[in-house]
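Duplicate of #3305? Posting structure anyway:
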């Protein structure tokens, strides 16, 4: 049994397979072909934080595969009243086939997984958001081919999304250039080595964006960090993706954002709603790539 708790839990070969499968599943759906290998299977989804995309993409994807998805907001379950996560994992994993968890510390999902009889997927923690970056790379490669050797410029917070880009850079062999204000530098939590060929940090967003193939950003106040809102809004004022910043990257560069976006804060409307933006494909591809992951974790590799 496998879990998907961090981006590095799958190998490069596995991602290659998953992307091929995601493209097949996307094509089947577009063609109106019913493909329901998971009839009778149940996905439990535990949300300790808000969500639009993650909930809809998992729930719709599971239904399309013939299974059922069960939404649980932790505040409406006994988890919200202090039931230990280990006990919740024991119980839920005896009644369902696969579980997605969105929570706070990575250690919570790890404890859940240790006590689960079924595969567990990370739907976002404070530290990582693996499903997001899988969809992001799939989206880039769908249009522009392999991401290997390319440059990704991250403008903004060193958060769950950028930390996942970092793990992806090592696996897919591209370079991550991160620009953030002083005091918000990336801390590597996975004990892996990231050389200068894979990762460099900058203060100046224009230096990070120079010649990049992908420019990407995220909210400056992630869920769970609301108490820091005032300070962060001030600190991140100069870390907005503008048309000028996109021009520094070049006309072939694409813009990605995991969403939800805050126009006029981390990105200007002209960029996110402009011709270089792939954000709607990116959001849709959450569903196709996650379907491939669910299928893989439950049924293994599908031949042909
Ligand atoms: N990108 C993302 O995970 O969006 P949600 O918070 O809406 O799920
Ligand atoms: N970094 C953001 C991502 C939201 C999808 C957060 O954790 O709130």
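Output from current build:
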């Amino acid at each position: 049994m496998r879990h998907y708790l961090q981006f590095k839990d799958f190998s490069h070969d596995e991602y290659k397979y998953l992307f091929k499968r995601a493209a097949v599943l996307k094509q089947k759906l577009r063609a109106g072909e019913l493909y329901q290998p998971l009839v009778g299977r149940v996905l439990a989804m535990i949300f300790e934080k808000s969500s639009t995309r993650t909930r809809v993409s998992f729930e719709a994807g599971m239904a399309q595969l013939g299974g059922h998805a069960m939404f649980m907001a932790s505040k409406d379950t006994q988890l919200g009243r202090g039931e230990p996560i280990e006990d919740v994992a024991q119980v839920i994993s005896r009644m369902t086939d696969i579980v997605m968890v969105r929570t706070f510390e990575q250690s919570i999902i790890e404890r859940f997984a240790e006590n689960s009889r079924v595969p567990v997927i990370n739907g976002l923690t404070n530290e990582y958001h693996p499903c997001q970056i899988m969809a992001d790379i799939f989206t880039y490669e769908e249009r522009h081919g392999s991401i290997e050797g390319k440059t990704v410029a991250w403008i903004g917070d060193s958060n769950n999304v950028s930390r996942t880009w970092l793990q992806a850079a090592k696996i897919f062999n591209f370079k991550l250039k991160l620009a953030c204000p002083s005091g918000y530098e990336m801390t590597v939590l996975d004990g892996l080595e990231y050389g200068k060929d894979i990762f460099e940090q900058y203060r100046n967003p224009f230096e990070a964006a120079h010649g990049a193939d992908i420019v990407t950003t995220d909210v400056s106040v992630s869920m769970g960090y609301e108490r820091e809102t005032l300070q962060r809004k001030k600190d991140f004022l100069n870390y907005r993706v503008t048309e000028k910043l996109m021009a520094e990257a070049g006309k072939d560069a694409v813009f990605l954002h995991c969403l939800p976006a805050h126009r006029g804060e981390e990105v200007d409307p002209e960029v996110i709603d402009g011709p270089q933006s792939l954000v709607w494909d990116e959001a849709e591809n959450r569903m196709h790539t996650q379907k491939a992951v669910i299928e893989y974790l439950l049924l293994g590799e599908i031949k042909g």
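Confirmed duplicate; merging threads. The pocket of norvaline (ligand 2) is lined by residues 124, 159-161, 218-219, 222-223, 258 (CB under 6 Å). The chain has a mean pLDDT of 98.
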